[in-house]
Amino acid sequence: MPKLNEAIRLAEASNWQGLLTLVTASPSCARDCDDYGMLPIHWAATENTAPLALLERLIEAYPEGVQVPNKAELLPLHIAIRARAGVPTLQLLLTAYPESIWVETPSGTPPTILGVQSCLSSDALDLLRATERLVAPDAKGGNQKAVKLPTPVISPTHQSTNRPHSWHTISRYTSTPATKTSPPHAAPLELSYEQSDGNSSEDNNSPCAEPQSTLTSATIPPAWMLIEECFVCRVPFNMFKHRHHCRNCGMSICSAHSAETKMMMPGYTNPQRACLNCAAVLRRPPPPAASQANDKQHRRRTSKLFTSMVSPKSRDKQDRRDLRLRVAELTKQMDQLMQTNMGMQQQLLDQEELKAETMLLITQVMTRVSVLELQNEKYRQSDDFAM
Questions:
Q1: What pLDDT tens digit does each residue of the chain (387 aa) get?
Q2: Residues 143, 27: one domain?
Q3: Any coiled-coil ranges, and where (predicted)?
Q4: What is the tally of structural domains in the chain?
């Protein structure tokens, strides 16, 4: 007999192997739900480290779980897209619930557009578009919000009102109840898609189609995205769940979605913190020498074009030399300003982390002082009683 909240506890701790063992032994644990409407399959979709076998086991134990939104009205597919899950994970969720490709988020964003905003890989975007072509919106009556099943998803073991609340919070606001219309059950859909060759105009025009190009060529660190919740799992930050910033994309992330080790990045002289997705991109090998040669040739042609535009042929050699010196001087000043700006941003980041560590230390000291005061008061009362 599994312990109370054991499945949710393992899911919150990202203990995927333990959760797989538990669900295999007791399939009813796949129906467990926390205070925020999060099933184990919701938690498994928040991280790319969750094994595919676990998702398959959760869907097998509770097939309707992929159709159940949490209290933030997000399906497991929405959470997986935000977490930039791989193609196998997305294909498994879409096969279990194909109509979810037309279920919008509370902000009215369909999964395909959400994938573009979350900078999914080109293969994952091709999978979402292929599913859109296979599942017609007319069969579902157009785009819709996430729907809730009329049957409750909270197991009898979780009906106690004395259960302690989890630190993981999905939303700070109370979501509007969704229309309780049970979607028709559809047979599993075998999805197929074509691999992208990287030359599609649609992918090239998308600002997030190839995130690695912006990560490796950036010379100035991106601005901070100071939000109150993790960009991946949408769990709010608090005293016990610290905020971290990815120095590569600028997003606010929690420790669960931060790389274990700091990495070297363009524009920095020492290793910096990175999220899991940026760390995977930064670990990729550099482009081949042919690509570097093409880039140098392109820069050389661009430089010649710029020189021809700003230096008319009618000017003499002295004017051209003065203009080149002026451009070189301005470029040097710009580089110095960039270095100064990066140094100031680094100091600001260090101060933010120092502040968080100081607040944690103060909390621990205050807790210890309170315990000592209680012990002192207890000893004083015992002495008075003895006298």
A1: 455 578 888 988 889 999 999 999 999 998 989 888 899 999 999 888 889 999 999 999 999 999 999 988 999 999 999 999 899 999 999 999 999 999 999 888 899 999 998 898 989 999 998 898 888 764 444 444 443 433 333 333 343 333 333 333 333 333 333 333 334 344 444 444 444 444 443 444 444 444 444 444 444 556 666 678 888 888 888 877 788 888 888 888 888 888 888 888 877 788 888 888 888 888 777 656 555 666 666 666 666 555 554 444 545 677 777 888 888 889 888 988 988 888 898 888 888 889 988 999 999 999 999 989 888 888 888 777 776
A2: yes
A3: 320-347
A4: 2
Domain extent for 240: 210-286
In terms of pTM, does the model score above 0.85? Answer: no
Shared domain for 150 and 241, answered yes or no, is no
For residue 88, what are the CA distances in angstroms to 43, 97, 203, 215?
A: 17, 14, 20, 25
Task: Report residue 255 CA to chain centroid gap.
Answer: 12
Q: Which amino acid is at 180?
A: K
Residue 233 in domain: yes
Collapsed DSSP state (helix, strand, coil) of residue 263: strand
Q: Burial of 189 by CB count in 10 Å (0-12 exposed, 13-18 middle, 19+ buried)?
A: middle
Query: Would strands 244-245 and 144-145 be described as parallel, antiparallel, or unpaired?
Result: unpaired
Looking at this protein, which amino acid is placed at residue 347?
A: Q
The interaxial angle of helices 87-96 and 52-61, nearest 10 deg, is 10
Say how far residue 211 (Cα) sits from the centre of its chain.
Answer: 14
d(CA 125, CA 118): 10
Q: Measure the CA–CA gap between 161 and 173, rounded to whole angstroms.
A: 21
Q: Is 229 helix (H, G, I), strand (E, B) or coil?
A: strand
- Sort 321 into a burial class: Cβ within 10 Å, 0-12 / 13-18 / 19+: exposed
Q: Is 311 exposed, middle or buried (0-12, 13-18, 19+ CB in 10 A)?
A: middle
Task: Answer whether residue 132 is part of any domain.
Answer: yes
